[in-house]
Design goal:
There is one protein chain. With 103 residues, the protein is an alpha+beta fold. It contains 3 helices and 5 strands; from the N terminus they run ααβββββα. β1 and β2 form a beta hairpin. The longest helix has 13 residues. The two termini are 26 Å apart.
Length: 103
């Protein structure tokens, strides 16, 4: 069984220190493309200064979808953002966790 959600919960819990969670956190919402949009605040984490190579699959230079199947992951203003079509939520979460686990 896939434990991706449990891994995301562990990452979140690790950063809840009585302060961080009052100002920062994780947001998962839907978007009207249709699809998913996940935002994870990096401020106050060890990921805040880590480089991330954006992933753009079937999106234009502005990040807008160019077909039914698309995904775009990037960092903007100290927030890791992953967006994708309605089939990509699990992949987006895994993309973040794989990057977060690298040293």
């Amino acid at each position: 069984m896939d434990d991706t959600l449990q891994e995301l919960q562990r990452w979140y819990a690790k950063h809840c220190d009585g302060e961080w969670e009052h100002q920062y956190g994780i947001k998962i919402t839907t978007c009207d493309n249709p699809g998913w949009w996940m935002k994870i605040d990096l401020m106050g984490t060890d990921l805040n200064t880590r480089l991330y190579k954006p992933i753009a699959d079937n999106v234009d230079a502005s990040g807008f979808p160019q077909g039914d199947r698309w995904m775009h992951c990037f960092i903007k203003d100290d927030v890791w953002e992953g967006a994708g079509d309605e089939t990509k939520l699990l992949i987006i979460i895994k993309m973040f966790l794989a990057w977060a686990a690298t040293q």
